[in-house]
Amino acid sequence: MSVNLKNMQYAVRGEVVIVADKITQNLASGDTSTYPFDHIIYTNIGNPQSVGQQPLTWPRQVLALVDLPDSEGVDHPKAELLFPLDAIERAKEIKKGLKGVGSGAYSHSQGARCFREDIVKFIEDRDGGVKSDVDSIFMTNGASSAIGMVLTALIKDSSCGVMIPTPQYPIYSASIDLLGGKQVGYFLDEKKGWDLNSEELERSLSEAKKTGYQSEQFCTH
Question: What pTM did the predictor assign?
């Protein structure tokens, strides 16, 4: 078994969550006298629906139309009675971009081109006309997947240090440990809204270099 995997700690799924799961099970079994509450609200993974937010309507409408046969969805004569017009138009765009393969099929390894073109347009609008290359855009299944890919490419061996903030999202520290790299922590400036502080970055980097890491082996989160 991988030693790195054995030693890795991932707080999002760690001891606090394990205890919370046990308490939830006890409550479900009828043990309501041990605790001064009747349920646990999980906030460890930032899931808005766990704290009461309902699923967003428009994305679900678009997804339903994308998955329905055209005759029962986007081309149905009464579609506009069931779905808003903008959801129907967006679903048509997606179905055209996916070239009829459906939302459940494998797409290009970088993500369907129609979605990457949307990302290029978003970046251009956001950054005041800065152009992006659609072939340089990579879509991933959530941020964790992207973080894993990037760190896998950057961490060559145990001589590679990765600078990560404190506090940080635990996926960074867990992934670095799993890949055999070294965590190089730096503190965020609480008084400035948890912003970066260049002096703190230099301090952390300087201390890490004393342990033998080379500056070109560092990457930030």
Answer: 0.74
Which of 115, 136, 157 is the last residue in one of the domains? Answer: 136
DSSP-derived letter for residue 158 is T
49's tokens: 């629906």
Average pLDDT, the chain: 89
Q: How many domains does the chain have?
A: 3
In this structure, are residues 96 and 104 in contact, taking their beta carbons and an 8 Å threshold?
A: no
CA end-to-end span of the chain: 28
Q: What is the pLDDT of residue 214?
A: 54
Q: Rg of the Cα trace of the chain?
A: 23
Question: What is the mean predicted confidence (pLDDT) over 96-124?
Answer: 90
Q: Round to whole Å and give the CA distance between 84 and 46.
A: 29
**Residue 76 scores a pLDDT above 70:** yes
What span, in angstroms and rounded, lies between the C-alpha atoms of 39 and 24? Answer: 7
Question: E strands of the chain, at which residues?
Answer: 161-166, 182-187, 219-220
Domain membership of residue 80 as a residue range: 57-136
**For residue 10, with 0-12 CB atoms within 10 Å meaning exposed, 13-18 middle and 19 or more buried, which class applies?**
middle
